[in-house]
Amino acid sequence: MHLQQEDEFGEEESDQEFILNILAASPSTRDSRGYMASFHPPTPEPAITLEAELPTAVPPAAVSAAEPDNQLVTQLLNPIVRRPALVKIQGPFTDHQLASIARGIHYLQKLGLVSVVVIDRDDIPPYESENAAAAEAQRTLVLRDVERVVHYLTKARAPARPILATVARLSEEGDVYVEAEGLDHVRRAVEDGEIPVLMPVALDQGCRSRRISANGVLCALAEAMSTSSEGSVPITAAPPGGRLDLTPVRLLIINREGGIPSYARYGLPHLSINLSSEFDYINRTFQPNWRQSHPTALSNLALADECLSHMPRTSSALIVSHRSPAALIANLITNKPAHSSSLPHALLEQSEGRITPDTPTLIRRGMPVRILRKMEDIDKAKLTTLMERSFNRVLNQDAYWARLEKDLDFVIVIGDYAAAAVVTHEGRDEGQDICYLDKFAVLPSHQGDGTVDFLWVALRDETYGLGLQDAANPSVGSLSGVGRGRDLVWRSRANNPVNKWYFERSNGFVICGTNKMFWCDAEQRMREIAQETGGLMRVVDPSESDRIAKWAPVIENIKSAWSD
């Protein structure tokens, strides 16, 4: 009886930890809508406007006072629809580590994410040995890990099923694929409310079971689960008739390395990766010493690239250390990185408790990034549509294009004008050359999917971050970090809800008529001043004297671009 009471108390403690992890994720209104759209689809998603609420830590007092019947928590704990996720558990892990991972997967299941798990081992060769005895020993190790994962998932109250059948097949060319018969093993487990746990094995042309790369199995599953779901129905607690929708919406890679090391962050992990523009660049700039500390980083990046190509555009991949289980919950609810990649580098890299070697890396398919420096390269019709839809206002086209003909510096374009930043030269008639952010626009359909951060990072690298090694971004038309950084200035309506987001990325602002004027200091100059003063920053350096007073009248007198 004592043991039963102790076990029940443990379950209660686990539920409290789960609720605290949800609250600690601090999902914004848009985050909650995005989650509800996937896991509570009967409710139509309201119209959204550009806002950028970032996950922040919950004060201990607020956490201790939180009640389980919190409205958001109640909604999150009662998903109507369940969505699959592909999960790679990349061991070996100790029993304690596996228990922590199992709790994280159980929490995801409670939130509606059904994991399809593939086991991997870093400590044995990626492919089966030609020696029969060695091959059998390898398979035995992986089988034991399958059994251990199933054990700890079940212990964490997440029913799991070992899939000992060979789900994948090998073609004559060595390609891995999953047929309908193999996928049925996964489907039946999910239908029965159990988490399928698979070995990285495949049947070759001779019908022999061979251990292969776990990445190959995951890629084959991503393709098969997506293509088999046409005309299917969502997974619910009590599935109606018809085939279940097995399309995966997340790829989770749980390892011992943590996220992918970043060239721009001097080896600390990437926060967010835009595969469409960064995949080749990350491979080129991967440092030799990282192949020792992060031996599977590039193969996991390739895995994410392949799997996401088969998954919905809103899907993401998360590479996370086993030491960061709470990140799994935060990512599911917000579909965002642990910290916004567009925040100032100093804030992210120097503040205590921010980026660490265990910070997860969020990966999206993303879109290409281009920098256009000539008017003839700009698609005026598409840029007009973007700005009018983003701001919900009508552009005074004749006046606006005439002004850009005279003052254009460059335009950053994401994808096919899904987002853009227009930068101009201002104040040259007054003997100044102010680097001015004239427009920052994101289509409503891309607000909240990481596009805004990709756009701001490119903007930083071409303006106030220019001249630094970490500004050598891979965007087409980029200056690649070569040049001298410039202060970036922009204005925003005083009551604009985006101002909080601007404030977090700026060095300051002043009231300028009916607007707020923000600016970002050129980082190269700030570092030089810090070196000259022994690391002590003056509030206003002599070189900056009166600059704000000179900017203000120029910025205030810029005419509105809108007809209304």
From TrEMBL:
This is Amino-acid acetyltransferase, mitochondrial. N-acetylglutamate synthase involved in arginine biosynthesis. Its main location: mitochondrion. It comes from Vanrija pseudolonga. The gene is ARG2. Residues 367-543, 370-531 form the N-acetyltransferase domain. GO terms for cellular component: mitochondrial matrix. It catalyses: L-glutamate + acetyl-CoA = N-acetyl-L-glutamate + CoA + H(+). Gene3D superfamilies: 3.40.630.30, Acetylglutamate kinase-like. Its EC number is 2.3.1.1. One of its GO terms (molecular function) is L-glutamate N-acetyltransferase activity. The keyword Transferase applies.
